[in-house]
């Protein structure tokens, strides 16, 4: 006879399965609480808790094999940054905003955002920002060329020009002692985003590649690429299982040679952790 008070505890492997989203949530909550208490500003608690919950939800959905898990995170975080932080709170979260707050010596939203997502964070999660949070790529990923239709071009040098232009623009405003900088930064955010979307969409169609803007133009990659070279989180290939079918490279939006486990692998610092290679590998080698 079965005991009436029999309790079924969750099986250990079920708990283990969801360790990654729980750890991610714990990391973001630690950042949220630390910044809230040290900066005495509850906004940080809300901000990092929201982002942590969004990412953890995406990881949970991915584990549950939901096809659009990454897109859900991208929309939750990207729209929050663009509409709430950018348009409603009037924080310039683009690179010009980073320079602006850096020059004023204010360690606030944009500088913290860059430090966490784009400068030091990539040492842990590589270019996860580009795969799961960027509001520019959030739109570009809706375009039809999810897999590049043409070979990669040698145009990556353009990113250094756009990077320098953003720095010179903000430095010039400071040197000229221009007034009402907050207002200028807000409009720089609006105009900058419109330009990014316009150039990104035109390039995607011209090169038949949704991520052409990311590969050749985006100034933020000047921070992201060197830091993500050392990333702890990387896609690794199990050589014992791999049959060299080449499918992973064919579906990769960033042209990464993911079968090479070395840090110097072709386009290794371009990996956005989108998991397309892993989803398509017929041998489960990734
Ligand atoms: S490369 Fe730039 S535009 Fe592309 S996803 Fe990363 S931050 Fe966004
Ligand atoms: S898809 Fe899988 S099996 Fe094919 S080359 Fe890539 S890692 Fe190897
Ligand atoms: S397909 Fe794989 S190697 Fe390419 S960007 Fe996505 S996760 Fe990285």
Describe, in plain words, how this protein is organized in 3D:
- This protein has 286 residues and is an all-alpha fold.
- Among the domains are: 92-228, no CATH class; 234-286, Alpha-Beta Plaits (2-Layer Sandwich), CATH 3.30.70.
- It is 60% helix and 0% strand.
- It contains 15 helices and no strands.
- The protein has helices at residues 12-17, 19-39, 42-63, 69-88, 95-104, 109-119, 122-125, 128-132, 135-140, 158-175, 181-207, 212-216, 221-228, 247-251, 276-280.
- The radius of gyration is 21 Å and the shape is globular.
- The structure holds iron/sulfur cluster (SF4) (3 copies).
Count of DSSP strands: 0
Main sheet properties: none
In whole angstroms, how far apart are the ends? 47 Å
Computed CA radius of gyration, to the nearest angstrom: 21 Å
Number of helices: 15
H and E order: HHHHHHHHHHHHHHH
Gross morphology: globular
Structural class: mainly alpha
Bound molecules: iron/sulfur cluster
- Specify the helix fraction band: 55-70%
Strand fraction: under 5%
Uncertain runs with pLDDT below 50, 5 residues or more?
Answer: 1-9
Mean pLDDT rating: 90
What is the strand and helix layout of this fold?
Elements: H1 12-17, H2 19-39, H3 42-63, H4 69-88, H5 95-104, H6 109-119, H7 122-125, H8 128-132, H9 135-140, H10 158-175, H11 181-207, H12 212-216, H13 221-228, H14 247-251, H15 276-280
Helix pairs in contact: 2-3, 3-4, 5-10
């Amino acid at each position: 006879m079965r005991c009436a008070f029999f309790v079924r505890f969750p099986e250990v492997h079920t708990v283990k399965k969801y360790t990654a989203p729980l750890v991610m949530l714990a990391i973001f909550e630690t950042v949220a609480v630390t910044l809230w208490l040290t900066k005495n500003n509850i906004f940080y608690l809300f901000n990092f808790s929201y982002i942590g919950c969004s990412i953890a939800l995406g990881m949970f959905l991915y584990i549950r094999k939901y096809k659009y898990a990454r897109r859900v995170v991208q929309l939750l975080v990207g729209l929050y940054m663009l509409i709430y932080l950018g348009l409603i709170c009037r924080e310039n979260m683009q690179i010009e905003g980073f320079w602006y707050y850096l020059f004023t010596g204010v360690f606030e939203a944009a500088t913290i955002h860059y430090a966490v997502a784009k400068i030091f964070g990539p040492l842990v999660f590589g270019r996860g920002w580009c795969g799961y949070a960027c509001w520019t790529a959030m739109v570009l990923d809706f375009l039809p060329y999810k897999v590049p239709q043409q070979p990669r071009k040698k145009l990556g040098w353009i990113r250094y020009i756009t990077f320098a232009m953003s720095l010179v623009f903000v430095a010039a405003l400071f040197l000229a002692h221009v007034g009402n900088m907050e207002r200028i930064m807000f409009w720089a955010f609006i105009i900058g985003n419109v330009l990014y979307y316009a150039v990104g969409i035109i390039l995607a169609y011209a090169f038949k590649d949704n991520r052409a803007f990311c590969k050749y133009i985006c100034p933020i990659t000047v921070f992201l690429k060197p830091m993500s070279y050392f990333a702890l989180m990387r896609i690794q290939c199990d050589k014992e299982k791999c049959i060299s079918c080449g499918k992973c490279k064919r579906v990769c939006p960033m042209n990464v040679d993911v079968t090479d486990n070395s840090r110097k692998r072709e386009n290794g610092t371009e990996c956005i952790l989108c998991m397309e290679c892993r989803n398509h590998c017929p041998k489960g080698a990734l």
